[in-house]
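REVIEWER CHECKLIST
Item 1: Sequence provided? yes
Item 2: Single chain? yes
Item 3: Sequence as submitted:
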Amino acid sequence: MQAKVLTISLIVGVFAFIGLLNSTVFSGDQGGIAKYYGSCIFREIKKCDLKLVLLSKSKSKNLQNYAKMEAQKARFLEAEKETLVKEMIEIQLDPKHYKIELFLNSRFQEWNRYKN
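Item 4: Structure as written out by the authors:
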């Protein structure tokens, strides 16, 4: 019962945070866009944490491995947050969620490929 409450609370929290991000108004300065990119990375870390919570207790080895990969992704995003924000500003990445997620996923895959 407590696990269900925790899971539902996490899901509601993630969606509330996403709703707040969608209502963000951008200014032309780089400080505002840097904060936005940082909040998108924070959102992605929270999504990884939620997947870890939901999948780590699975009986499926594939889902457990996926949960471990999400934990690695969260650690990577946390450790490289400043570098990723600078790179997104440098390439003038459109402040759209799907483009930011694609960028973060591609950087994680590159890091993961070279790490192994």
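Item 5: Key structural point noted by reviewer: DSSP finds five helices and no strands in the chain.
Item 6: Recommendation: ____
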